Sequence to fold (336 residues):
Amino acid sequence: MSRGLPWRTYKQYLIDTYSTSVYRIGVDGGFSCPNREKDRSGGCVFCDGTGASATYLREGEGIWKRDSSFQKKVAHCGPRKRISLEKRLESLEFQVEKGTNFIKERYNTEGISLYFQAWTSTYAPIDELKAIFDKGLSLYPFTEFIVSTRPDCLEEDVIKLLVSYKQKVKDVWVEVGLQSGNNITLDSINRGHDVETFKKAVIALHNNGIKVSVHIITGLPNEGYKEYDNTIKLINELKIEAIKIHNLDILGGTALFDEYIRGELTVASTSRAIEHCIYFLRRLSPSIIIQRLLCETPPHRLAAPRNFYDKSKFIQYLQRSMNKIDAIQGDLYNGE
Fold:
């Protein structure tokens, strides 16, 4: 476990691996998402079209603060506006310079990783991907290269391209959105892929020496502990290296928001989300790195839950709750 916490943190993993702290800069490569193109039906039900990009990368949102009220008018649903490759490469230069300068000044470290965070960051022709990734990695001697994407956007040529960057950085990671290990749930939230697609993608990445982080959501409609067990079993069996756990948030303009305002959907309280986290942590392999434990939606886009703990309070609450019952990550792991 990590520095007294009853789970294995990414921060401690990085220190143990590189003998120093390493920080990410999240960048937007100007990608879109196949689930929001015209041949799909509007994207995942929980997505408001901001593509999980960092708040500081979204123009026009700087006026909103941590205590801002919910503003439905800022919803960004719909396909993303396309921009030229030239402008995307120029934007990368600005983003990397801004991010590296911030990290150096705030943390006094040279350890920085490049994280293509926004949207589906392998959803593009292979020559376009190469130009964007090459450009980003040329701007600084990064420690790790991390790409966030969907399991249905990891074709063989994409994986080969990602493998080629192992020569430029110390490690390559791919963050793969799964959300649930249950096909019924994936259909209901309009993910646009199934569990088998996720399995094939992870196996292909592992066969090529690429580490995998999986994103899951707790509190999805019609999911309980039986469904959680299926997701946990899948993650353990595939020997996933890391996980990001998100509680379900309701964002303005989404399909879930429409259900919520009709009174057809509720979201978990902080205490219930803590219970869900503990359930996962105790059953996940103790070798899995825990990279995230809650969703941190900017308040001006968040319809519910409005009274959820911030990250610091949530982590403290989770730690106290696990210590109270003498629980640690993996203490109920069955080893399969």
Observations:
- Residues 10-324 form a domain with the TIM Barrel fold (CATH 3.20.20.70).
- The chain has one domain: 10-324.
- Strands lie at 23-27, 112-116, 144-149, 171-179, 211-218, 242-247, 250-251, 289-292, 302-304.
